[in-house]
Structures are given as C-alpha cells and as structure tokens.
Amino acid sequence: MKLKMSLTRRPGLIHMIPGLDILALVLVFPLFGLSFTSISGVEIGLPESPHRLKRMERSIEVSVKGVGDLQVWVNKNKVSEDALLNVLKNEALNWSGGGKVGVILKVDRQVSSGDKDRIVDLLASLSGFKIYDARR
What we know:
Blueprint: H1 17-35, H2 50-57, E1 60-65, E2 71-74, E3 77-79, H3 84-93, E4 101-107, H4 113-124, E5 129-133
Parallel strand pairs: 1-4, 4-5
Antiparallel strand pairs: 1-2, 2-3
C-alpha cells in the first residue's frame, strides 16, 4: 500500500541534504589524506660518472668516534686531533685524484654535534680540500 504525502507541496532541498553530506565526505577525505603522506619529491636516476667514483675511491678517509675521549682516524691510522691538519697535508702530497684533495668525513652517531662541528671547522680551514660528509 502506497502512503500519500500530507504536505501540499514537495520539499526540494531537504531530500538533497544527505547527498550533500556524502559529497562533502568524498571531497574532504582525499584532501586530508594527501597531507598525511610524505612526498619525497621526484626520484631521478642519474648516470654514474667514472670521474666522481675514482675521486671517491682515492679520497682520504677521516673517521671520528668516541664519546668522552674523541678518537680521530686518518686512513685507518689513529692520529691526535692536534696532528690532524699536518697528517692531512702529508696525505695530500700523495694525492693522485686530480683537482682538490677529497676528504671523506665519517662521524659515529655517538659523537656529539659540538665535537663534529669542531672537526668540520678544522677541515674547512684547509684550502685545496673538498670535504664529503658520509652520513650513514
């Protein structure tokens, strides 16, 4: 049995309100969903450069570790912090990479940022050296 409407005219917008709610939800969720995803940019595969690889292979490696007593290593030889610049200058005499002398700086995670900054400032005081920060 069909029910008859007792109103004199049919209400127009009241029947559309649930549809507008659903439409609003459909539009809002994708907008908020994109803000919670991490966008890292465009991934680009660059061609390998043999010159860069040769330079990195021939670079002088400076490793820093230790919490209280800072230990500095140059090409797997332990040196004091005071002698670091002189050792690097001596290593630069044997440099065969061409251009600026490459220095790869490897710093342990437990080393404080102040100690790391002090070593970076020491290395930056040398002219003719290119410093690469090898963060792991």
